[in-house]
Specification:
Length: 549
């Protein structure tokens, strides 16, 4: 009988080592063990690849112990009828061991064995399934923790095995009854052991809750991140906000107000705050990347291991990377190939969005489906969202208007008045349009909310950090002194060099942006820059219009 036990353990183990989630990931050229929780079971596959992949994995995981137990019955129901029930349980145990600890995977890390245990219950004692499944669903619904439901389900398997064994329902002979109970206990404890990280998080109070609400992660707890968290919370979504700064998260947890960057705007008690990037990114319906543009690449690298296939990531910062000349969506796509990168922008100051003042923006994406999904997630009675396929045009408009806003601020600092500012805004949008069209964007985009609309609000608003920095420079501050005074990231400073470089690359004349660069980086007085712009060679405003004679 000992040799039979070893044989069915081996049979079960080799049935168990085929992990459907791992195979599915490989079919997509992805390694599930490097994504999300790193688990190769049903739950993580669902999170990383969607419901179809999750269903395939569930069916595969449930089928493995059923196959192992069926093979065991075929081999031994005649030669060892008294011990066949015990051998079936050994086969189920072997399957779970193979599923949890496949020899070919790093650190022998497979799944957690819950679906396998369910499949074993179906094959070994179907009468256990209704109560076990019922307890799992009830405990998950009551506590909102899938891990609690799983652990209770495992305990119920052991309890039912003992109860039904004592009642004679399992048809286990007296000789092997205690061994069957021992194996059931081993299977239960193995499953609980595989949930040790979940148990730690439950004790610490940071385990992820199951919710039918849409779940969004806001990556970046600055003014814009907090304002958008408020929008999503108002729309009835479950929101988690992340920051790398522990002091910032502690403040938000205690006061639910960002006193430094968004004073007077109280955030709902339902919003969660964390410094754990995995917690903020994993298992989210949508992610909002709201860190300053200069940190987009480094933050995307931190997010990448936990991103599922086709995860929507909405970039809400504005900028162009100086070294690569890439837009922020292009950076996200480069660092996170699995992502469905999109953009949300338009004339919108966080201070006003936080106070629920009427605002209109545009959701840009590669596909209409993604843009409309973002529109649906964000839109409410004071937050109107349009859609657009011109992601490049939107990002260029959003990034370059910050550079023009620096120029408008300099004019304000020099007290040049409304005439000067109107000229800078109008000629500035012309420069942006020339470059955008040369790069393949659409003029209509630049003439809309994400072009001229965003430019007007950034050049004119008291909330604009770019205008404020420019104003200080116009009054004689150095670039660094102005940035220190503003106390927030001035995106236009970081986009200015990239904008000038793109102008040279595409052969586009951008005199305002060139003069802003000289003021910022060559210590040219703002007054001299304005004078030089006014003294340029004579031009006609509209080069495509024809004279009558």
């Amino acid at each position: 009988m000992l040799s039979n036990r070893l044989v069915v353990l081996v049979i079960g183990y080799f049935c168990g080592i085929f992990l459907s989630g791992y195979a599915y990931g490989k079919s997509k050229h992805k390694d599930i063990t490097t994504m999300g929780s790193g688990n190769a079971g049903t739950t993580n596959t669902f999170r990383m690849f969607g419901w179809k992949a999750g269903l395939i994995t569930l069916l595969g995981d449930v089928s493995k112990p059923i196959a192992a137990i069926l093979i065991t019955w075929l081999l031994f129901h005649k030669s060892c009828p008294e011990g066949v029930r015990l051998l079936e349980l050994y086969a189920g145990l072997g399957t779970i061991i193979g599923h949890n600890y496949p020899f070919y995977m790093k650190h022998f890390k497979g799944g957690k064995g819950i679906a396998c245990t369910g499949g074993m219950m179906i094959a070994f004692c179907p009468i256990e399934v209704p109560l076990g499944l019922g307890l799992f669903l009830i405990m998950t619904a009551v506590t909102k923790y899938v891990s609690v439901g799983s652990i209770v389900g495992l305990i119920s398997f052991f309890v039912q095995t003992v109860a039904f064994g004592e009642l004679g329902i399992l048809d286990v002979t007296e000789k092997y009854r205690m061994e069957v109970y021992l194996l059931a206990a081993v299977i239960m404890l193995m499953g609980i052991l595989r949930h040790r990280e979940n148990i730690k998080r439950l004790i610490n109070g940071n385990e992820n809750k199951f919710s039918l609400k849409k779940k969004e992660g806001i990556i970046g707890a600055g003014s814009w991140g907090c304002a958008l968290a408020g929008v999503l919370d108002t729309n009835g979504h479950q929101v988690t906000v992340w920051s790398v700064m522990e002091d910032e998260i502690s403040m938000l947890k205690e006061t639910h107000e960002h006193a430094d960057k968004l004073p007077g705007v109280l955030l709902s008690e339902k919003i969660s705050f964390t410094c754990d990037i995995k917690e903020a990114v994993s298992d989210m319906d949508l992610l909002v990347l709201a860190v300053p543009s200069v940190y987009t690449r480094s933050t995307a690298k931190q997010m990448a291991p936990y991103i599922r296939q086709n995860q929507i990531i909405v970039s809400v910062a504005k900028g162009i990377e100086e070294e690569s000349l890439l837009t922020l969506c292009e950076i996200i796509e480069e660092e996170i190939p699995a992502a469905d990168a999109a953009v949300l922008c338009g004339p919108s100051h966080a201070e006003e969005v936080g106070r629920r003042l009427p605002t209109a923006l545009v959701a840009g994406a590669r596909t209409k489906k993604t843009a409309e999904y973002i529109q649906k997630v964000f839109m409410n009675d004071v937050f109107r969202v349009y859609t657009s396929p011109d992601v490049l045009g939107m990002e260029l408009g959003g990034a370059l208007k910050n550079v023009i806003a620096l120029a408008a601020g300099m004019a304000d600092g020099l007290e040049y008045g409304d005439n000067t500012k109107a000229a800078l805004i109008t000629r500035g949008i012309t420069e942006i349009a020339r470059l955008a069209v040369a790069m393949g964007a659409n003029t209509e985009t630049i003439n809309g909310l994400t072009g001229i609309g965003d430019l007007i609000v950034t050049c004119a608003s008291r909330h604009s950090r770019n205008r404020k920095a420019g104003m200080l420079i116009g009054r004689g501050y150095t670039m660094q002194q102005a940035m220190d005074e503003v106390k927030m990231v001035v995106e236009g400073v970081y986009s200015a060099k990239a904008a000038a470089a793109l102008g040279k690359k595409y052969g586009v004349s951008m005199p305002i942006i060139e003069q802003v660069n000289r003021v910022l980086f060559d210590d040219k007085p703002a007054k001299d820059a304005v004078r030089e712009l006014m003294q340029r060679d004579k031009k006609t405003e509209h080069t495509t219009l024809e004279w009558e004679n």
